[in-house]
Every structure is written in C-alpha cells, then in structure tokens.
Amino acid sequence: MNLRTHQLAGRTAPLLALVTVAGVSALGIAATLVAVPWFVLHSTGSGTWTGLVAAAETTGLLCSAVLAGPVVDRLPARAVSLGADLLTAAALALIPLLHFLDALALPVLVALVFVVGATRGPAETARQLLLPEAMERAGVAVEAGTGSVEAARRIGLMAGAPLAGLLIAAVGPVRTLCTDVGAALLCCLLVAALVPPGTTGGSSGAGASYLAELRAGWAYLSGDRPVRAVTAVLLVTNALDGALNGVLYPAYGTRVLGSSALFGAMVTAIGTGALLGAALYVRVGRRLPRRALFVGAFLLVGAVRCATLAAGPPPWALLSLLALSGLGSGALAPLMMSVAYERVPEAVRGRVFGMLTACALAATPLGMLAAGPALDGWGLTPALLATGMVYLGVTLTPLVFRVWRELDVPPPRNTPADDRSAPNTVVSRPSL
To answer: What's the pTM?
Structure first.
C-alpha cells in the first residue's frame, strides 16, 4: 500500500507542482500590478509616467511572446522555465535594491519592468509545454488539467491584489515587490524539485534558422482553420476586455457606484464566478460540446456582463449577475488551451502558443484607446451597450461559420496535429 501510494504521488507530483506554480505566479504578478503603478503615481504624481511604466511590462511580454517561441522550442522546456523565473526574480529584486541605494531613476524602472515582462513570457510558455506530459503522467484528462491550472491562477489573482494592498499599507510599495520575487523563486524551486527532466522541448533541431522556425509557427497558426478562428475571436474579445477593464470598469465605479468598496466587490464577484467556472469545467468539460460551450461562455462574459452594467441594477443584483458572467470567463481559458493542446503539434507549440499570447496582448491597448473617446463622446451607458453589441456579434460567429464545427471533431490521427517529431521546416496542414 505504501509503495502504491508512493508511486501515485510520483505520478501526480509534476502536475500538482505546475498547478501550484500557476497560482503562486499569478499571486506575484497581481502584487506587482498593484505595487508598481502605486509607487510611480505616488512618487511622481504623473499619470503619463504611471502609464508608461505599466505599458513597459506588457510591451516586454508582447515582444517575448512573438520572438521567444523558437528559443522555447529549441531548449528543454523545464530549463527555460527555471532560467526565466530566475531572471524575473533578479530583475524584480533590483527595484527595491536600487531604491534603497537611491539610484532608481524612472527610466531604469521602465527598463527593469520591461525585462520582467520579457522573462515572464518564456516562463509561461515553457510551463504550458510541460503541462501535457504532466497530465499524461498523472492520467488526467486535458480538460481537467487545464481547468485546474486556470482555477489556481484565478485564486492567485484574487489573493494577490488584496495582499498587495495590505503590504503597501504596512511596508510600502517597493518592499511589496519582494512578494513577487519570492513567488518567482518558489516557482523555480517547485519546478526544479517536482517536475522531472522529460522529453518536452529541445525537439526543434538545429537544421533550421531562427527565422525559418518563426515562420513555421506563423504558417501553422494560419494553416489550422479552427485554431485560426479561435485566435481571431481572441483578438477581438481581448480588445473589448481591454476597453472594459482599463476604462469602462473604473468609470462605472466612479460615476455609478461612487464607492471604491463596491467597485472592489464587483471585481471580486467576477473573479469568484471565474473560479467556480474553472472548477465546473474540470468536472463536466469533457462531456460538453465545445462549440456550444464556447458560445455560452462568451455570451456570459460579453453580452450579459455589458447589459448588466448598462442597466445599473441594485448592488445585490449587480454582484450576482457579474458572478454569473464570471462563470463563462473561468471556462474559456481551459477550453481554448484544450483545443490548442489537441491540435498543435509539440514541435511548434512554443511558437504557436507565444503567438496566441501576442495576439491577445496586441489587441488589448487598442480597446483601451478606443474606449476613451467612446466614453467621452457617447457617455458610459451607450459605450457599454456598444461594447456588448460587438461582443454579441463575435459570440455568435461559431453558430454561423462551419469551421467552428471542427472544434467538436478531434483531428485525424495521421495529420501533423498528432506528429510529435515534426521536422524543422514549415508545418503544413491539409485544407479543411
């Protein structure tokens, strides 16, 4: 019995480690997202500098998402995860150190935050590459594995922001960054101790040039129609989410709620619903048609959420409906990752997953830029309704175009989607 328990623990340890790392990493990221803008705003009083520093990490993440894919595919994924986490911790640790030495000029802070974003991208992509092997080792279905990772991430994000607020009040924003330093080091330790060296990564051979491998990732992304359709929807919906999160949510908290406590409760309600949605996906995701789940989840995330905010219901109804909309948000991330793991061959996952991240990041600032003039020109309620209408149109596309039916049909076993030793040339797919 003891031997059997030991064997079971050995099989599940890598997956449990990656799930824990997802939560710990999200907690550290949330703390940094609160602490750094707080520090800049209170140090300078400049919204321009605050925005510049906030954009620096996103820019670094975007650059690494596009350019680091071939590197992640060439090297062992475990080594990339460890190295990237160490670089993240080092860049973050320099901020309080330089502040203590009175040498933290704002351009230096911008550069360090850019490096943090640039190292987070390869770390996240590498852990995505490690996950399928860990799920297979533990005998866990892909829906359950990706749902567990998403649930852990949601818990980390929900815990990180209030923790950062308490720490800022107690020790100041710069020292609060030590939370993220510790989180990055703990992630590195968990992967090093519990995720064994495996076969993941290092399969993109030396025969192809860096640019050829980068083109291979783009070729695959444009050649697989279901993945391309998901990417297009992700591009538009992330722009809409950028408008909501960056502009319309704060405006709603100020103009309608008039209470920072209620605004915080609103964000918490969405996060709680998302956590429950991820947990439900773990339990029932395999038994539901993917196309129907995709449409239903986006309907909750987009049209229902925007209509709720535009209606301005009393607080109890507002929080209840926003928690309901969060259910869709929690299910979407593991659903899309399940599709990606099933369809994208291991040899190009680093490049393709990085480009998926890049598509999401590239559109987010565009939504923020468009939401500002819409809010000023139309007012809050029309801007929310317009956002909801666009969201609804995007949500209904899977019911109109035939390509979305392929989400419910596993790719044939003789296609490159199941090829674990794809060559280092452009990956082609048959016409679908």
So the answer is: 0.72
